[in-house]
Write a structure and sequence with these properties.
three-stranded parallel beta sheet, five-stranded parallel beta sheet, alpha/beta, TIM Barrel
Length: 258
Amino acid sequence: MHTLQIGKYTLGSRLIVGSGKYDSFEMTKAATLASGSELITVAVRRLNITNPNEPNLRDIFANTNVKFLPNSAGCTTAEEAITLFRLTREATGIDLIKLEVIGDTQKTLYPDVLETIKACEVLARDGFTIMAYTSDDPIMARRLEDAGAHAIMPLAAPIGSGLGVQNRYNIVFVREAVKVPIIVDAGIGCASDAALAMELGADGVLTNTAIAQAQNPMLMAEAMKNAVIAGRLSYLAGRIPKRPYATASSPVDGMIQF
């Protein structure tokens, strides 16, 4: 019930976390382990695949069950992302990737979905397992699935904004549009945001800033873990319909008449 299947990969947690904005690698590790996540997204430059004398996240997470999810943060064209991931796989052997091509690098950090689709088509042919960051547009989600994406990652709100899910309907529409898992990504601010995303039908949630910049990252990591589990169970259980008026909780049949 709690496992998440993305392509050939099976994850024991439906929560994915990020590695940026922490005060130290040690806090990154501690919060990640507290979250129960088995997948941490990391900008390729933070993997430090070129200088063995500098601190390395791969060394920090040695002897854990946490997998790395390289992302193409900073890439603004399909060509940049394709080259980056090919080099990364050559150096690390990692083929599970988070594809993101940013169209607005100054204000919204919104994705350039057309460039993302172009990159996805090429990387899918190269044999990568692709998780594609995109807008909350069900049409583009379907096109990314057709391009070979193994998971669709619609944004909840701008990256790092903490605004939570801004368009509930679009998350539902994306869920209905594709067969691959959807991971709500970007804009999660607190545990209730994560629970809501899961209740809307998301298969998982990715969050970074909400944990890394919380006043107590360890406590927020644990809250996110529990929120994702609770939201998933609530979705599977099926909520009651909303009604404009009250309905009695106790039966009225057989009541004593005065």
